[in-house]
Amino acid sequence: MNNRQAIRALVRKDIRAITASVQLWLPMLIVPLVIGIIMPGILIWTASRLELASLGNMSFLIDTLDNLTHAGQIPQLASMPTDNHRIVYYLALYMFAPLFLIIPVMASSILTANSFAGEKERKTLEGLLFTPMSMDTLFKGKVLAALIPSLLLSWITFIIYGIIANILMYPMFGKWMFPNLNWIILVLWVVPACSLVVILLNVLISAKVRGFQEAYQLGGLVVIPLLALIAGQASGMLLISPLMLILVGAVLLLISFILLRLVTLWNSRQQLAESQI
Fold first, then answer.
1. What's the pLDDT tens digit per position in 117-135?
2. Tens-digit pLDDT profile for residues 77-92
3. Could you write out the three-class secondary structure of 183-220?
4. Residue 115 DSSP class
5. Fewer CB atoms near the end CB (10 Å): N or C, the chain?
6. In 193-230, which positions are buried (b, 16+ CB within 10 angstroms) versus exposed (e)?
7. Quick one: CA dihedral 243, 249, 252, 254, positive or negative?
């Protein structure tokens, strides 16, 4: 068996393990459904139908949009005919974007925590280590087994969200509004880079700890920086521009390269075997 065949076999084996476990695939479906489809859809629909008198209850958001308009950060807001249009446009095309980074982070954390840590719990890691495949092939297979489902889940959620956003926005704007440049860069550049960082970080963690729950809890700490990003975007203090997204993706790829070197240096057959004891 050559390296490519070994990698494909590892990917198929790990994906079968995922689909066979409800505790793995159920959270991976619920989280994108709630934060990527249901919640944004309800908020966009509600904002598009608010009476002008009710907008006083959203004065904080209107003030944020006024500041962004005056600063020229979102020039399109200045030409919007009503506050409803401005709120819907900001929600659909800007405010929800950081939430979509939670989807690949969450999926990658679950999938990678199940890699080495799951093998240890199922008592299958020792047999895997005695196969003739190299450690490089083993880690590539584990990384791809987490990366492929994570990206597919993120991209499918993005497509469904885009359809819903366009359906809800079309009566107001008379044209398809989604996606803009920010979303395209986010989904095609930042999401894969973010997934790769989380996967490699969790591979390091998963290879060292003894069980799935411990690996998942430690890997879940990656979500904390995203919460600050979401808060900054929602308040208007940190508006994510296309240039910033490109730079974020580049930094994440650099971090991935460093983590990949650490994975190679810190993990050997002996170390992985000893970590199960």
1. 666 666 666 666 666 677 7
2. 888 888 888 889 988 9
3. HHHHHHHHHHHHHHHHHHHHHHHHHHCCCHHHHHHHHH
4. T
5. C
6. bbbbbbbbbbbbbbbbbeebeebbebbbebeeebeebb
7. negative
**pLDDT given at position 272:** 55
**What is the per-residue pLDDT across 190-223, written as a single tens digit (0 to 9) for each?**
999 988 888 888 777 766 655 555 555 555 556 6
From the list 42, 40, 69, 65, the residue with the least C-alpha distance to 55 is 65
Residues 6+ apart with CB under 8 A from 237: none
Q: Is 161 within 8 Å of 42 (Cβ atoms)?
A: no
- Is 104:199 a contact under the CB 8 Å cutoff? no
- 146, 180, 85, 30: CA torsion to nearest 10: -10
Tokens encoding 164:
């819903």
226/101 Cα distance (integer angstroms): 8
Nearest to 259 by CA among 195, 168, 181, 196: 196
Distance of alpha carbon 264 from alpha carbon 267, whole angstroms: 6
Long-range contacts of 254-262 (CB under 8 A, 24+ apart): 255/197, 256/193, 256/196, 256/197, 256/200, 259/197, 259/200, 259/201, 259/204, 260/200, 262/204
Instruction: Confirm if 32 and 104 have CB atoms less than 8 A apart.
Output: no
Token pair 């608010």 is found at 50
Q: Which residue bears the tokens 């240096």?
A: 265
CB atoms within 10 A of CB 23: 11
pLDDT tens digits along 120-177: 666 666 666 666 677 777 778 888 888 998 999 999 999 999 999 999 999 999 999 9
Q: Tell me the CA end-to-end span of the chain in Å, nearest whole number.
A: 30
The per-type count for the chain, helices as H runs and strands as E runs, is 15, 0
Tokens of 74: 């979102």
